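Rather than argue in generalities, we reproduce a single protein record, letters for residues, whole numbers for local backbone shapes, just as it appears below:
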Amino acid sequence: DAYHVGWTHASSLRSGQSIFTPLAGNAMLPPEGAGLQMTSKYGSGMGVLWDAYSGVHSADLVPEMMAFGGAKQEKLAKEI
């Protein structure tokens, strides 16, 4: 989602030289009806897409996503 990326990830976008650097601090709103983007003053963000590919919101993916997150959490616990 092009809107939250420019704000939530502005520091990392500005620190490197890539094709994505111009996205930092973008001032454009998402296209009308595309959804809702929110970024807090602490840098956390959230996006809701109204009309997106159904796989993005599929409940069938929940077990796979939870397993992926759990595997990362175990690795982080070991490294921290």
Notes: The chain has one domain: 2-79. The longest helix spans residues 62-79. The first strand starts at residue 35 and ends at 39.
